[in-house]
Design goal:
The protein is an alpha/beta fold. The chain has 9 helices and 15 strands. Bound molecules: nicotinamide-adenine-dinucleotide and FE2/S2 (inorganic) cluster. Residues 215-218, 220-225, 235, 237 line the site of FE2/S2 (inorganic) cluster. Residues 48, 106-109, 112, 132-134, 155, 157, 166-168, 187-189, 191-192, 195, 210-212, 241 line the site of nicotinamide-adenine-dinucleotide.
Length: 273
């Protein structure tokens, strides 16, 4: 069993949970994920690492209560325990060598983009972080990102923080201002990653995106997490989750995402009773 050490809401939709898992805390790197199962009747879900503390032996996950399992997860308290917490899975994000990076987080994706920004900052890279949220009440990790970025730009869809617009508008503005990024990394909704890649393509800026398709086994066997990248079909769980943003078939990924939505709603309704 994996004891839960701390649970705290980050906003009305998003929860941060610190789990004791010393083996994983020693090995996990930014971009990698774990598969967890609450108990024997629960499904396995992938969650990408938000932070780890090898000395304390803890791994922090951040999740949005959107499906049956994440809703149950959000109800757990410090002192409860998870049955399974397996990992690290997937490949670490390739961050070595970047000197001027822009890390982009859309909504919850900000929590996944944060460890990459932190790693880059700690390894001498100048990091801009652009994040986007529907409104100011959903803004995540502002202080943590301030501590590891040269510049943080927070956009809101409704302008409620005084900075109205999408992350792609802020990125275009930074490029127009002369920011000479050698790496752009985007984590968030597929449609956001599609348009981030479209923004960087004309400038030939290396762009990595973190794909988050449905995962079942996390081992490359079930085919659930297939993503078309260039001419190949790859598996996000073993070949990713990061891919070259200029090669991903985003429209195909969005079509596959929609296919499972009715199953997820049915599971959520059953969980809500
Ligand atoms: P959201 O729908 O509120 O979008 C967040 C931000 O993304 C917006 O504020 C905007 O700045 C940007 N965005 C959205 N559509 C855009 C477009 N067409 N062009 C440019 N920018 C656009 O996000 P949410 O409700 O917090 O949902 C989080 C999403 O992130 C979910 O879809 C979830 O699956 C995904 N996610 C992905 C990963 C991953 O590893 N890729 C991890 C966690 C969450
Ligand atoms: Fe089954 Fe990736 S989750 S192949």
């Amino acid at each position: 069993m994996y004891p839960i050490e701390r649970v705290e809401p980050l906003n009305a939709e998003v929860t941060r949970m610190v789990v004791r898992a010393p083996e994983i805390a020693r090995k996990i790197r930014p971009g990698q994920f774990i598969m967890l199962r609450i108990d024997e009747r629960g499904e396995r879900i992938p969650l990408t690492m938000n932070e780890c503390d090898p000395e304390a032996g803890t791994v922090t996950i951040v999740f949005q209560a959107v499906g049956a399992t994440t809703m149950r997860l959000a109800q757990l308290k410090a002192g409860d325990a998870l049955l399974d917490f397996a990992g690290p899975l997937g490949n670490p994000t390739e961050l070595e060598g970047a000197r001027r990076a822009c890390v982009i987080g859309g909504g919850l994706g900000t929590a996944i983009a944060y460890p990459q920004a932190k790693w880059l900052h700690e390894h001498g890279c100048e990091v801009d972080v652009i994040t986007g949220f529907r409104n100011k009440d959903l803004i995540l990790l502002e202080d943590e990102i301030n501590a590891c970025s040269a510049r943080q730009i927070i956009m809101t869809d409704d302008g409620s923080n005084g900075n109205k617009g999408l992350v792609t508008q802020a990125l275009q503005q930074r490029i127009d201002e002369g920011a000479d990024y050698d790496l752009v990394l985007a984590v968030g909704p597929v449609i956001m990653m599609k348009f981030v890649a479209a923004t960087t393509r004309p400038y030939g800026i290396k762009t990595l995106v973190s794909m988050n398709p449905l995962m079942i086994d996390g081992t490359g066997m079930c085919g659930g997490c297939r993503v078309k990248v260039g001419d190949e079909y790859l598996h996000a769980c073993v070949d990713g989750p990061d891919f070259d943003g200029h090669l991903v078939d985003y429209d195909g990924a969005m079509r596959r995402g929609v296919m499972y939505r009715s199953f997820e709603s049915a599971a959520r309704e059953a969980a809500e009773g």
